[in-house]
Amino acid sequence: PKGVINDWRKFKLGSEDKEITPSNKRQLLRQLSSPYQSLSKDKDAQEKFSRKMSVTEYEMTQGKEDETCLRKYRRQCMQEMHQQLSFGPHFGVVYDLENGEQFLEVIEKELKITTVMVSIYEDGMKGCDSLINCLTCLALEYPLVKFCKIKASNTGASDRFPNHVLPALLVYKVGELIGNFIHITEQLGEEFFAVDVESFLNEYGLLPEREFAACENTSDGSDVDIE
């Protein structure tokens, strides 16, 4: 599509190093990216620049730096597309809830599209710190999910969370409980990591698509060709 081609030309022109790019090449890129900007009143000129690019012109716009420039352009397009598709607030941290009132508020007042995960813990209980550390890592990978933690003794319903059921992980969406995992260490084992918790939650379909981050760290050989 002409719009995509023109966007690429403009991006390439902005990425060119003026000190090492010949002036005739920069001028050609400007004309190709905005063919009617300076010649809008000249019909013959419009027709001239609306034609297909000649072989000579194509060769002038190509160079060893094109592969790197195209890779940057792909990353930018993918990032912009991902931002448009990522609706809702971004969190990225584990929120500390101080009492039962805050607990209820975070469940009832979040947007319908937001998944809320609450870790119920107590200091010194085996597995509680490990689960919180894992959720802290996952909060960075899944910023659309709101991760929280609260002491069982602060929930206002400590009788529902005796020590033998901790750590517990409760998952809510639209105010409804959709995941209830008590004594989660029985499923994860005594020693577990963020990737284990991630896999466990994915088995139940409780995590959204992973937040796009690989584009910034893509190596030279891992790009996918776009035709």
TrEMBL record:
Pfam families: Phosducin. One of its GO terms (biological process) is visual perception. GO terms for cellular component: cytosol; nucleus; photoreceptor inner segment; photoreceptor outer segment. The keyword Phosphoprotein applies. Residues 22-45 are annotated as: Disordered. The keyword Cytoplasm applies. Residues 1-220 form the Phosducin domain. It is found in: Cell projection, Cilium, Photoreceptor outer segment; Cytoplasm, Cytosol; Nucleus; Photoreceptor inner segment. InterPro entries: Phosducin (IPR001200), Phosducin-like_reg (IPR051499), Phosducin_N_dom_sf (IPR023196), Phosducin_thioredoxin-like_dom (IPR024253), Thioredoxin-like_sf (IPR036249). Residues 22-39 have a biased composition (Polar residues). Keywords: Cell projection, Cilium, Cytoplasm, Nucleus, Phosphoprotein, Sensory transduction, Vision. It comes from the Eukaryota. Belongs to the phosducin family. This is Phosducin. It comes from Scyliorhinus torazame (Cloudy catshark).
